[in-house]
Amino acid sequence: MSRPKNDTFLRALLREPTPYTPIWIMRQAGRYLAEYNATRARAGDFMSLCRNADLATEVTMQPLARFPLDAAILFSDILTVPDAMGLGLYFAEGEGPRFERPLRDEWAINDLTPIDPWGNLRYVMDAVSQIRKALANEVPLIGFSGSPFTLACYMIEGQGGTDFERVKGMAYGRPDLLHKILDVNARSVVAYLNAQVESGAQALMLFDTWGGALSNAAYQEFSLAYMQQVVAGLTRERDGQKVPVIVFTKGGGLWLEKIAAIGCDAVGLDWTVDIGEARARVGKRVALQGNLDPTILLTTPEIVRREAGKVLASYGAGTGHVFNLGHGVSRVTPPENVAALVEAVHEQSRIYH
Amino acid sequence: MSRPKNDTFLRALLREPTPYTPIWIMRQAGRYLAEYNATRARAGDFMSLCRNADLATEVTMQPLARFPLDAAILFSDILTVPDAMGLGLYFAEGEGPRFERPLRDEWAINDLTPIDPWGNLRYVMDAVSQIRKALANEVPLIGFSGSPFTLACYMIEGQGGTDFERVKGMAYGRPDLLHKILDVNARSVVAYLNAQVESGAQALMLFDTWGGALSNAAYQEFSLAYMQQVVAGLTRERDGQKVPVIVFTKGGGLWLEKIAAIGCDAVGLDWTVDIGEARARVGKRVALQGNLDPTILLTTPEIVRREAGKVLASYGAGTGHVFNLGHGVSRVTPPENVAALVEAVHEQSRIYH
Questions:
Q1: What mean pLDDT, rounded, does chain B reach?
Q2: CB 3.0 to 4.6 Å from A264: which of A149, A247, B8, B194, for a disulfide?
Q3: Residue numbers in chain A where pLDDT is lower than 70
Q4: Cβ within 8 Å, pair B272-A219
Q5: Cβ–Cβ below 8 Å for B165 and A212
Q6: pLDDT tens digits, residue range B233-286?
Q7: What is the pTM of this model?
Q8: Is B128 exposed, middle or buried (0-12, 13-18, 19+ CB in 10 A)?
Q9: φ, ψ for residue A213 (rounded to 5)?
């Protein structure tokens, strides 16, 4: 298995020289694309789309057909692991993911065991294999999962985006129970991501969507420690190729030094962080991924080009930057603005390499 | 006009010695108190409560009757200024504040002019005067407003807590229009807060609830610059007493050095920041206010005492700390946990002074 023809994404993550700054976009296969909406309508609901390897491959490839992106990302959800534990993932219209059977009883927590990724998550591995074939080694494929803490938020609350009163109540009142959940999650995520690598994923990303809701001390104890456990357990090389790992805590800008120290290759940044300042803080240790405010993609191609140029200039000369948004692309984004972004990053970044 | 009998709050803001760490609680007069709910039911809706000086005084005093808090805060809303501009503030049940007539047209923005606080905001000044009388100089009274940017978010979006697509679209596409709004807001807030001081407010606070949704550069241009303009225009001394100013950007932990440099006396911290690290960064320049995670108040008195102790220990010895939550108190907070918090802060902090 050789490196992909376009390996700029992998090289930037490993801080090796590249001719330009590579770019991919969180949620690049998504509702801002008419062809995605058409495929999803055929699939029925979101999880049916994830579970069908043909359709998951189709939507994964859609943004690559439109834009010269430097990486593909598995089409799936961050919450497949707790779904495989039997909690019943579903998507209420316009409401984000939810679980039918959140963890509300101590016995249910004590009964949790790590999932076998080759069991009822085999559909993910099938999708990874099939997407790799479809990619024909043009660009690398990113595998991913939610972080142990982010999974726990949904498992305990039943949904995201709340004040996390139940999760934090457990963190402060019954930390033993939360640690039990997080340990099962971490071991499950390790097995799950390693199975993705075995199936063909060439880089991995941990999405810690809700770690930023914690206090500094609680973040380290309940989110970062378990991402460190995950990173330590991952397959980091396969067929002679390194498999870089990206860790992204939304709202984690205060903690970049601590995140950069857990053994990952790259740290994702949301848009609140100045990427040049982030580089000064941790750029000798890790690559950085990010961090244009996704709302900028709702303006015009001209503004998109200007603002992308500012992010590139802030990072400055040299490798170690993977361009991305600071959060997933909005469903109301005009695709022509994404086209302008990808072109601008590719063209404007050459002077820095 | 002499200093209040208990002036620990004012002294801590000015970094003068105090025998213990003073505490007040954001939204201390609120729905977690049965007596508040009773008064509010008599008033009808929230704005009727704000507009009635007798009732606003009554609810301002309620938490002080229960807990030995070191400051009172005017009972009002952060959005009274745009309401006075005619945008029609209302509160949808369980939805947070909204405006009936958000700014959607360029002519409406060009027509904006600074408000006269002695016009249709006189009800606020009446409440301030009456609360001061009720306080009988026991503890100081805090006046406040939303920050110019936070007001603009609600004025443009019609509500808070969104992705701020309209505000940011204006920031990137028509910055001239946003600057126009922000300048009117800043001049209005200056006049409004100075009128509160003239009416008896003894400290002032700017609530920048949504500045943390901006990128680093946009925050400085659209939020911080206008808070600096406000701070520069405020009455900082009255009747021989200094009037300290607190600036609080939720989610602004990355930018503490910049916030501390705008001329305020104190910086509010949300709970994601380690207050000891914040002190190391800016404690020589400003006092710090915060920053217990409000969800800790949903646990038990024992846990509240333990976690409050951690915040005190993190700040360490010496003055310059006003204890508070990192965000407003939750409506489902048991009042006995607030009692435990106030007592714990008063008792445990003595060793640091």
A1: 96
A2: A247
A3: 1
A4: yes
A5: no
A6: 999 999 999 999 999 999 999 999 999 999 999 999 999 999 999 999 999 999
A7: 0.96
A8: buried
A9: -85, -5
Using an 8 Å CB-CB cutoff, list chain B residues near A325. Answer: none
Confidence of residue B92 (pLDDT cuts 50, 70, 90): confident
Q: How far apart are CA B128 and CA B143, in angstroms?
A: 8
Q: How much is the ipTM here?
A: 0.93
Amino acid at B301: P
Bridge-based pairing state of the strands B141-146 and B72-73: parallel
Closest chain B residue to A214, measured at CA: B272
Q: Which residues touch A147 (CB under 8 Å, ≥6 apart)?
A: A189, A206, A207, A208, A209, A211, A223, A226, A227, A230, A247, A249
- A40 catalytically annotated: yes
Using only C-alpha atoms, chain B has a radius of gyration, in whole angstroms, of: 19
The 10s digit of each residue's pLDDT in B212-248 is: 999 999 999 999 999 999 999 999 999 999 999 999 9
What kind of architecture, by CATH, is found in domain A29-66+71-235? Alpha-Beta Barrel (3.20)
pLDDT at A1: 58
Asked if the Cβ–Cβ distance from A165 to B310 is below 8 Å, we say no
Give how far Cα B188 sits from Cα of B53, B147, B181, B229, Å.
22, 10, 10, 11
Phi, psi angles (nearest 5°) of residue A287: -80, 165
Residue B269 distance to chain A (closest CA, Å): 11
Q: Collapse the DSSP code of B35 into the 3-class scheme (helix H, G, I; strand E, B; otherwise coil) and give the result.
A: helix
Res B53 pLDDT > 80: yes
Residues of chain A with CATH 3.20.20.210: 29-66+71-235
For residue A141, what are the β-bridge partners?
A: A72
